[in-house]
Design a protein that fits this description.
Helix content is about 45%, strand content about 15%. By secondary structure, the chain is of the alpha/beta class. Bound molecules: nicotinamide-adenine-dinucleotide. Nicotinamide-adenine-dinucleotide binds next to α8 and β8.
């Protein structure tokens, strides 16, 4: 507990776990076994850079091994610490259980500000960190499979995969040691966008349930909803882009490290992203009001608030001031347990992190399966599917000719219908299905039990129940 009375990130996750577990009928010993983090490994290693040896500190935490491999991203940030990595690893356990990805929970971190290093230096550091973890089986296709998180992306993942392959030259499954690789290096189409895409699919599913929409004091569909996004990185950028270009949402505020920008008519997300890439922040973006204290923009009027940057940004200090009726936690742990209490009592609906950002691990699961099966999704059936569709189109064509002006095929029907699903379409379909089903499993608990008042508690209950069943199946 900090001096301000705010629990730490790990304590926050445990408090949320406890609230759910208290409503379940689990033996105390099993409850404790599920909650605790199995192991955290700390490594310090040196790398010679710019003529001197620099020492770095990294972590890999395994929260649960009820399924193996354990799965979870690697974060590069200057202030990564054990508490944070353990909290994130625990969330991974519950997240995987909720979306039925057969993994335990893990997470890693390296204390580093990647913006301070050149590309070739980051490669050296990543290789060395990977080496330290690989030689202890803390990266391994069967035991522990990392993925990108804050500060890391495709590049780091392909370096890790290459390092593993160099150290395990005869392992035919070597590529499955890490996910989030670029498609040309054993990755899968749609992984980069997956977490943001999952946020979009999660919101689409939420808006399919009018009762749930009404609980947030909202009505109608996603079209026209005003959205605030914090963090225009991988997750925030994709979520904001898809919601604004495909669902008709208006992104009215974007909060970044250097402040926030506001425009009531909504931003063109690609243009803001390009501006950030060029200028290093949002300050000075044309046709927008600049808000120096970016955190104040979290408190602006909107329909949907999407924190997609870091943990703890909605806390006991600002929770009362948050006006959004609906928050979707694209980041991990953006709402502290204390703020969660305040918001829940005020009737704010929170779509919780363990569900909201599970799109990343879901598509990582597809990538891992692809690597182990050594074949891309859709390769066997695509043309056969197209040939069958062709039969129907030929018949319709015949009808078209026969009926003359009385009936004709809509212009792009033929082209759309004929195209068999490639890898990207299949990945999106699998992700959409996963997000719908996981939401429905949470909402069923939320809607049917009168002692469950929020989606987070419901999500934890579904997840804990599944982890408990798998421990029981092992005889524990
Ligand atoms: P990222 O590094 O790509 O982007 C983070 C963005 O947030 C950057 O634009 C950064 O400038 C901004 N940011 C950082 N600190 C900020 C602050 N204090 N205020 C405002 N903006 C700030 O990271 P990401 O991969 O998009 O991850 C973001 C969150 O989503 C993290 O909580 C991460 O754990 C979670 N997440 C990521 C994935 C994934 O697939 N990448 C999957 C699940 C969850």
């Amino acid at each position: 507990m900090s001096s301000t009375g705010e629990p730490s990130f790990r304590q926050s996750v445990d408090l949320m776990f406890n609230r759910a577990a208290a409503l379940m009928d689990l033996p105390a010993g099993l409850e404790e076994k599920i909650r605790v983090c199995n192991a955290t490994y700390t490594v310090r290693f040196g790398v010679r850079l710019r003529g001197e040896i620099r020492t770095f500190t990294g972590y890999r935490s395994v929260h649960s091994e009820h399924f193996e491999p354990a799965k979870g991203g690697i974060r590069y940030a200057p202030n990564v610490h054990q508490d944070e990595v353990e909290a994130l690893a625990a969330l991974m356990t519950y997240k995987c259980a909720l979306v039925e990805a057969p993994f335990g929970g893990s997470k890693g971190g390296l204390c580093i500000d990647p913006r301070q290093f050149e590309e070739h230096e980051l490669e050296q550091i990543t290789r060395r960190f990977a080496y330290e973890l690989i030689k202890r089986d803390m990266i391994n296709p069967a035991q522990n499979v990392p993925a990108p998180d804050m500060g890391t992306g495709e590049k780091e993942m392909s370096i890790i995969a290459d390092q593993f392959a160099r150290m395990n030259t005869t392992d035919i499954n070597a590529k499955a040691c890490v996910t989030g690789k670029p498609p040309h290096a054993g990755g899968i189409q749609g992984r980069v966008e997956a977490t943001g895409r999952g946020v979009q699919y999660g919101l689409q599913e939420f808006f399919r349930h009018p009762d749930d929409v009404a609980s947030a004091n909202l009505s109608g569909k996603l079209d026209g909803k005003r959205v605030i996004v914090q963090g225009l990185g991988n997750v925030g950028y994709h979520a904001a882009k898809f919601l604004s270009t495909e669902d008709g949402c208006k992104v009215t505020h974007i909060i970044e490290r250097d402040g926030a920008i506001a425009n009531a008519s909504g931003f063109d997300i690609d243009s803001v992203r390009d501006y950030i890439a060029e200028h290093g922040g949002v300050k000075g973006y044309p046709d927008a009001e600049f808000i120096e204290d970016g955190l104040r923009a979290l408190e602006a009027e909107c329909d949907i608030l999407i924190p997609a940057a870091i943990e703890g940004v909605i806390n006991m200090h600002n929770a009362q001031a948050i006006k959004a009726p609906l928050i979707i936690e694209a980041a991990n742990g953006p709402v502290t347990a204390g703020a969660d209490d305040i918001l829940r009592n005020r009737g704010t609906v929170i779509i919780p992190d363990l569900y909201a950002n599970a799109g990343g691990v879901t598509v990582s699961y597809f990538e891992w399966v692809k690597n182990l099966s050594h074949i891309r999704f859709g390769r066997m059936q695509r043309r056969q599917e197209e040939a069958r569709h062709q039969l129907i189109v030929d018949e319709l064509q015949r009808l078209d000719e026969h009926l003359g002006d009385a009936w004709s095929m809509t212009p792009d029907f033929k082209q759309k219908y004929l195209r068999g699903a490639g890898e990207l379409e299949l990945v999106r379909s699998g992700l959409d299905d996963t997000m719908r089903i996981a939401y429905q499993s949470m909402r069923e608990v939320w809607r049917t039990r009168n002692d469950v008042h929020d989606l987070r508690t419901a999500g934890f209950m579904v997840a804990i129940g599944r982890v408990a069943s798998s421990y029981r199946a092992k005889g524990l």
